[in-house]
Amino acid sequence: LQTENGVLLPSLQSALPFLDLHGTPRLEFHQSVFDELREKLLERVSAIALEGKVEERYKKLEDLLEKSFSLVKMPSIQPVVMCVMKHLPKVPEKKLKLVMADKDLYKACAVEVKRQIWQDNQALFGDEVSPLLKQYILEKENILFSNDISVLHNFFSPSPKARRQGEVVQKLTQMIGKNVKLYDMVLQFLRTLFLRTRNVHYCTLRAELLMSLHDLEISEICTVDPCHKFTWCLDACIREKFVDNKRARELQGFLDGVKKGQEQVLGDLSMILCDPFAINTLALSTIRHLQDLVGQDTLPRESPDLLLLLRMLSLGQGAWDMIDSQVFKEPKMEAELITRFLPMLMSFVVDDHTFNVDQKLPSEEKGPIPYPSTIPEAFTKFLQENKIACEIGLYYILHITKQRNKNAFLRLLPALVETFSDLAFSDIFLHLLTGNLTLLGDEFALEEFCTSLFDGFFLPACSRKENVHRHVLRLLLHLHHKVAPAKLEPLQKALEPTKQSGEAVKELYNQLTEKMELRKPSPAEVTEAPSMELPLPTVPTPASR
């Protein structure tokens, strides 16, 4: 048996007894030879896949697969069979079905083979993608509710390129490869989930996935996605957090270039523009433009750049309705937004300038001029009834908070109590607001400020919206030591979790309670402090001895 099945090398027969002298079993020797041969065979298979004419090389591999497939369940031979399948652009249907039917084989096969299985089996592909999409949404929510509150490092801090290196985007990119059919399936999943949940993070993933394929220069997909160049241009704006004039013209060209009969592309473009990172860039650019217009004595209707920003904001904000109704046309812009609301915001900027100038003027008998405390009723109405006005209004409030403009913040805060579909209580806005409020940390020592912020805005919403409860606790974890003592205990009581509260709220509340306990001086310390100071003067110094 050994002679018939052993390695037939004349020179080997005399060398084998040496192994016996060293106590090395023949099994170990044959196993190492087998492993070596398998490695050589794997290398040869990879080489065949690259050499000669296309038909010939694939014919060789198909023959090899036919001969070896019956051994696919043998662990020692399986890698070879899998390697052959991996290099075949089209594995025979029969073999794919056998792999699909066996869980272990399916798990062991390369992603190249799985792609061939997935493209004709949407349900199976959905099962693979679904956990990744859940993980992605969870990661985004964890960032929004992170305990690290900072103006410098917030949700929008990472650059687009850094975000695309995330695990989920990379895995999806690898699963799709160059397969247009799989890419379309993922986009369909994202559209369906966006419709079902209204969760805008799916729009972010839509853009990130396309740009990740762009980074890898996968032209097979990028050239067939009509949004590619638009997304690429917008991605550069998001990186700069500003839409400059040159890119604004490019973006406008793409929007104006949507031909009759191709309106469906607007659905995809609106989803790209609905990405919070895009909305953030457009809104920041809008606020910056409004400030420039104040300096130029120009009205909003006279600025084409501003009108384009509003057009894109409008398209992004209308994404859900457009995909839901399947009516692909740009939403009509309300004239009043441009003729009334934006001039009103500009008047707030002017109020600030006027007040600052007044403060610098030498005071006369009439005394200091108070900061305007009322807000036009129309402003509140716009925030309640117009989605774009609401978005821009919220970004203006974030802007004045970042400038540490307490007066303007307290003036406009009451308008946030009731906004269009509760946008002022959305996680993204509260995440940014809590970060910016850390710049006004010293104001928390004033009872009046705390009353306006907590009693007037946060607390009434806490009972009906758990996310608001979480954001307030995050803020207090960071700033509790600066809050007016008279307000701190009532605040702690008001924020106590109820039976219905989720685990996250309870956990945050416990952390806050612990932190506050640590800050309370213990009774022992209070009594000991004076007694330690009393004997100090009586201690003799070396000189007096």
How would you summarize this macromolecular structure in one to three sentences?
The protein has about 550 residues and is mostly helical. It has a domain at about 10-110. It contains 30 helices and no strands.
Structure description:
Residues 519-545 are annotated as: Disordered. This is NELFB factor. InterPro entries: COBRA1 (IPR010405). The protein is mainly α. The longest helix has 26 residues, at 335-360. It has helices at 2-5, 10-21, 26-48, 54-68, 78-87, 93-101, 103-108, 111-118, 122-144, 160-163, 167-176, 180-197, 201-215, 219-222, 228-240, 245-256, 265-274, 276-296, 304-317, 319-325, 335-360, 377-385, 387-402, 406-412, 427-437, 447-462, 466-479, 485-494, 503-519, 523-533. The termini are far apart. The chain has a domain at 10-110. Helix 12 packs antiparallel against helix 13 (201-215), helix 15 crosses helix 18 and helix 23 packs parallel to helix 25 (427-437). 69% of the residues lie in helices and 0% in strands.
Our measurement of the CA-to-CA distance between the termini, rounded to an integer number of angstroms, reads: 105 Å
Secondary-structure element sequence? HHHHHHHHHHHHHHHHHHHHHHHHHHHHHH
Radius of gyration using CA atoms only? 33 Å
Task: List segments where confidence is low: pLDDT < 50 over at least 5 consecutive residues.
Answer: 524-541
Average pLDDT, all residues: 89
Structural class: mainly alpha
Number of beta-strand segments: 0
Strand content: under 5%
Q: Major sheet, described briefly?
A: none
Number of distinct helices: 30
Broad shape: elongated
- Give the % helix: 55-70%
Protein name: NELFB factor
InterPro entries: COBRA1 (IPR010405)
Region (Disordered): 519-545
Pfam families: COBRA1
